[in-house]
Amino acid sequence: SCRSRPSFRTCPRRTRSCFGSCRADFRDHSCQLVRDGSVSVESAVDNPAVAAKIIRDHIGPVDREHFVALYMTARNRVIKREEVSVGTLTASLVHPREVFGPAVRLAAAGVIVAHNHPSGEVSPSREDIEFTSALVRATDAVEMPLLDHVIVTSTISFSFLDTGLIRPQQKTGG
């Protein structure tokens, strides 16, 4: 049974039966949401380099694009890391609902998305920029910010936020 703080929004199991009956600290359960234990919820993801490291460590050296979402608390800690799509050498098929659906179910305060470029070229493609714009437009509907979109290669990364391709958005939650 769930024993986190009494709030449906912060209940890590997100079940209505936990509302008002939770007791323990949220961090006790948040590690369970990242089942493989490779993401530390103790340290905040406070810059794109940290997000890139998490993604790079998760994806590893592969020959296809992997699109990953990091679902974040209001204090920039990872609630869950989810591989949204595995594509081809040059593309990954993703729809905004596949990114924001789990975010809503997890009551995330924000989302960082990332994908790799197996080619080693870190610059965003026209499709990367268009999809990121679609994600930003979708944030209005779900009232949840896209905190960043990070592209990684085996050695370097590119941040849409740092380069001004997306603007900082206000996080939801407490």
Q: How are the elements arranged and paired?
A:
Elements: H1 26-33, H2 48-59, E1 66-72, E2 78-86, H3 96-105, E3 110-116, H4 126-142, E4 146-152, E5 157-159
Parallel strand pairs: 3-4
Antiparallel strand pairs: 1-2, 1-3, 4-5
Helix pairs in contact: 3-4
Summarize the structure.
With 174 residues, the chain is of the alpha+beta class. It is built from four helices and five strands. The chain starts with 25 loop residues before the first helix and ends in a 15-residue tail after the last strand.
Explain this structure.
This protein has 174 residues and is α+β, with helices and mostly antiparallel strands. It contains four helices and five strands, in the order ααββαβαββ. It has a five-stranded mixed sheet, with helices on both faces. Strand 4 and strand 5 form a beta hairpin. It starts with 25 loop residues before the first helix and ends in a 15-residue tail after the last strand. Mean pLDDT is 77; it is low at 1-38.
